[in-house]
Amino acid sequence: SIFSMTFFRVIPKRSKNLSFANENGRRLRAKKSITSVSSSRCRLARFLVAGCSSCSCVLSSLLVSIPFKLFLIDCQKALFKIGSVDKKPAKRTPSAPFTTSTLQQEASRKLGFSVGQTMSIAQRLYEAGKITYMRTDSVTLANEAVAELRELIAKRFGAQNVPESPPVYRTKSKNAQEAHEAVRPTSALRTPEDVRGHLSPDQHKLYSLIWKRAVASQMIHATINTVAVDLLCGTDGEGVFRANGSTVAVPGFMSVYLEGKDDGPQDDEEGFLPGLSEGQKVDLLDVVPTQHFTE
Predict the structure, then answer these.
(1) In 117-208, which ranges are E strands?
(2) pLDDT at 201 over 50
(3) 246, β-bridge pairs
(4) Any idea which of 3-7, 178-182, 215-219, 242-246 has the lowest mean pLDDT?
(5) What is the pTM assigned to this prediction?
(6) Residue 293: how many CA atoms within 13 Å on its side-chain side?
(7) How far apart are CA 219 and CA 155, in angstroms?
(8) I want to staple 223 with a disulfide (CB 3.0 to 4.6 A). Which of 21, 61, 88, 250 is the partner?
């Protein structure tokens, strides 16, 4: 039988640390490299062990000093390769253009700006004619702005990234003040590179954020493959690491902008895995045992 035992983490190629911990808090960290894969993002995965009739006997063996050390030695000498890769496609849609509230939230997540700092910088960008009015609950864009965004996307990112019809967004707030349109650049053709020399560093950061969000909102959805990968350990594949994550099949809007989150993994822990293929060899570089206790 195969039992769910522990967890590990897949890290990019230059610092590939795998960490995994059993139900009693014993944690291992191992480094690995994947042939011909340049980068990846972190992802929690499940470690499965075969060959025992009950999960408890495996746990008890790991908690004994000598068997635990032998287990580490076996890991260091074992051969690793990808056993299977199971993919299922899914669609991810872009976020709406910024309202005042979502602008403040994203500026805090991505730039570390306070609400006051964000609004002060946005005020200066508005007064300089770089962005539309920054106090709004609306997620709609003017028809001229949509046409300009679609033109820019086709030229800069390719016509294949322009949807057949413009996406339509509606505010979720019942008492929304929609006298103004969403926060956007006054001209999408004025790219962050074009205005860098005319803005302070913080102004440029916020302008870039607004520009990317507006552009991404008018691009096609991204196609994501949810992936389950089995990593075989040992000459006969007697141990199996299982990694669950996702790979990007068609990036779409994600090539420009990806919305942040308040809770859960961020950026390098979002769950994206590198492209992996069945039979691909993986080299184990190091195994480091540490102790970890859950709160």
Answers:
(1) none
(2) yes
(3) 226, 272
(4) 3-7
(5) 0.67
(6) 1
(7) 12
(8) 250
C-alpha pair distances (Å), 289 with each of 26, 76, 125, 269: 8, 12, 52, 22
Pull the structure tokens for residue 269.
Answer: 């822990």
DSSP H or E segment with residue 282: strand 281-291
Residue 142 to residue 181: CA distance in whole angstroms: 7
208's tokens: 């870039």
- C-alpha 189/C-alpha 213 separation (Å) is 14
Cβ atoms of residues 221 and 257 within 8 Å: no
Question: What separation in angstroms does the CA of 122 have from each of 82, 182, 207, 223?
Answer: 49, 13, 8, 33
What residues contact residue 260 under an 8 Å CB cut-off, 6+ apart? 105, 106, 109, 110, 266, 267
Residue 165 to residue 160: CA distance in whole angstroms? 13
Query: 130: closest CA among 203, 193, 181?
Result: 203
Give the residue numbers annotated as catalytic, written as ranges. Answer: 133
Both tokens of residue 70?
């032998």
Confidence band of 284 (pLDDT split at 50, 70, 90) = low
Token pair of 51, please? 């060959």
Containing H/E element for 242?
strand 239-250
